[in-house]
């Protein structure tokens, strides 16, 4: 352990450098860098096997994936989406020509629920975009019944949820489509990257067509096409990441369990449970700060940690309905506002060793003691 090393949220799981170099060698030997090369093809097949889903459509990042899928599958209209999410979820919808309508979330699960979605439904609603926050699945069956009853679509932002399960089935298999992020700060790391998944052949053909201008690929009628392809370099990193996924998951679980046990003894800091309805990837170590019990509010705590070289993050802050360009348009969302004021994410990932976590917990105990 380096006593003063800076500990970040987001230095998650590092793919093996030698294996990446080996995959890159093949890219340079073939002189085939993009446009559906052999590594992207292999990556899509491996993801399909790993997630038990019929179609994986690899894209250059999660935001663009969501934008392309929303533009392809919806013809504008209102989409109900939680305000408690990363801005990319909502901005991608806007780029796709949809109107986001913010709903609140459940204060316990941090995900949307029928109770929070229902008040947002109008005659213009075309879809619900659920976010499986922290990898914990949305109430999938209830949402799908509700969407069916109102003849609207349900789709999922699964950026946090690679490898997570809902009642024995992998996230990837639900809704019209699901979108994953393979950003550097995610458990499956392509540097930048993402994919769309679906079990519907027609949806897959449309999404494959829309993500590129390549003449030889599947071609069906879509409203617009764009270059959203994944490159061979991204797929090389992704393949190596995927090969070691279970090791990454186990290492994340070890860190999560360490924090859980240690924070049990720190009054006022409550770790958000993961994987209560099935496997988790244990990527997010999210803590709720109860200022009264802890003796310090979340923002003061994040600043104190930063002074001690621990870069915790306020995911997510500010809430989207209080951020430009939405600030004046939407009403109060009490659970979202409460969560944005009280949650923080602690450093996890391969750079964080047991001794580092011990140091973080000792700092937290010290601040609490005043
Ligand atoms: N939907 C949801 C629910 C999402 O959370 C996201 C992305 C998306 C959609 C969109 O997917 P992508 O288009 O990104 O594929 C980070 C990530 O950039 C973003 O991917 C992620 N969610 C979000 C939750 O976190 P920032 O703006 O907080 O990133 P940044 O650069 O401040 O990094 C966080 C920490 O990680 C820093 O303290 C430093 C550290 N870091 C970061 C990078 C990039 C490293 O140590 N090494 C690195 O290479 O958004």
Question: What is the topology?
Answer:
Layout: E1 7-8, H1 17-30, H2 38-51, E2 55-59, H3 62-73, E3 78-82, H4 87-95, E4 99-103, H5 114-117, E5 125-131, H6 140-149, E6 153-157, E7 165-166, E8 169-170, E9 178-181, E10 194-198, H7 201-210, H8 232-243, H9 245-263, E11 269-271, E12 286-289, H10 291-294, H11 298-307, E13 310-311, H12 334-342, E14 343-345, H13 354-369
Parallel strand pairs: 1-13, 3-4, 3-5, 5-6, 6-9
Antiparallel strand pairs: 2-10, 7-8, 9-10, 11-12, 12-14
The structure holds ligand T4K.
Overview of the molecule:
This protein is an alpha/beta fold. Helix content is 39%, strand content 15%. The strands form 4 sheets. It has a 7-stranded mixed sheet, with helices on both faces. The longest helix is centred in the last third of the chain and has 19 residues. It is globular and about 65 Å long. The mean pLDDT is 95. Bound molecules: ligand T4K. Ligand T4K binds next to α3 and α4. The site of ligand T4K has 22 residues, from α3 and α4.
